[in-house]
Every structure is written in structure tokens, then in C-alpha cells.
Specification:
CATH superfamily: Nucleic acid-binding proteins
CATH class: Mainly Beta
Distance between the termini: 21 Å
Number of strands: 6
Organism: uncultured Delftia sp
Protein name: CAZy families GT51 protein
Structural class: alpha+beta
InterPro entries: NA-bd_OB-fold (IPR012340), PCB_OB (IPR031376)
CATH architecture: Beta Barrel
């Protein structure tokens, strides 16, 4: 388990240094609260959580604050350093395919300090090998 966690942490650290590729999908957010919750649940069923990298849908975007909603209905505000990995998607002149806007399906994770960060699923893969030195 410790080796798995170390590998996963290394891959996530690597991913934070990569260019933001954009949201995984976009949906239209209905103005009716019940319909909006259903739309969010439906799209997040197609984008399951990946360990501690959780799927969420963007509800609102400001230059220094993004509010997302999880499938359980929790709304999470992400600010400050939590926006750094996706800064190119928040720029006013961001290309449409990487633009973070309401209805965008994004990934969030907890930082070491306990704050929320916007992130993305890694494209790289990794593995670990364990050997018994006495048997090879």
C-alpha cells in the first residue's frame, strides 16, 4: 500500500507540472435545481472518481474562485493555489476546448494542506516491481 501511494503521489506531482488539457466534458446546466442535480448525477456517472482524484461539475467561475458540485450534492469553492494547475483554462482568451466554464466536468483533489485543488487525470502510467532478494 505504501508503494502504491508513493507511485500515485509521484504521478500526480508530475501531472501538476504538465499543461492543462481542459475539462473532460461539458454539459448544459438547467436552471431548475432538480433538473440540474439530475444532469450532474448523470454526467458524473460517466466520469467516476479515480482514487482520490474526484469528478465534479463546475457551477460558477470567477477569476479567483471556481465553485464545483460533487455527485453527493457537496458544493466546493476552490481558490488561490488550488487554481494554479488549471490557470490556462481560466484565462479570458482560453481556447474553447480547455476553457473552464459552468457545466465543465473537472477533477479535484485535496492538497497536503487540506485545501481543494483543480487537477486532471494523468496521461502517464506507472508501475512498481517488488522482488525478494533471496529468491530473485
Amino acid at each position: 500500500n505504501a508503494a502504491y501511494q508513493a507511485l500515485r503521489a509521484g504521478i500526480q506531482d508530475y501531472e501538476k507540472r504538465q499543461h492543462y488539457r481542459g475539462p473532460e466534458a461539458y454539459i448544459e446546466l438547467p436552471s431548475d435545481a432538480a433538473a440540474r442535480d439530475d444532469a450532474i448525477d448523470q454526467v458524473l456517472d460517466d466520469h467516476p472518481d479515480n482514487g482520490d482524484v474526484l469528478a465534479a461539475v463546475v457551477l460558477s467561475v470567477e477569476p479567483r474562485k471556481v465553485v464545483v458540485e460533487r455527485s453527493n450534492g457537496d458544493q466546493i469553492a476552490i481558490t488561490g493555489n488550488g487554481l494554479k494547475p488549471v490557470q490556462s483554462g481560466l484565462a479570458a482568451k482560453a481556447p474553447p476546448k480547455i476553457k473552464i466554464r459552468p457545466g465543465a466536468v473537472v477533477r479535484i483533489t485535496r492538497s497536503a494542506k487540506g485545501d481543494w485543488d483543480l487537477t486532471q487525470l494523468p496521461e502517464v502510467e506507472g508501475a512498481f516491481v517488488a522482488l525478494d532478494p533471496s529468491t530473485g
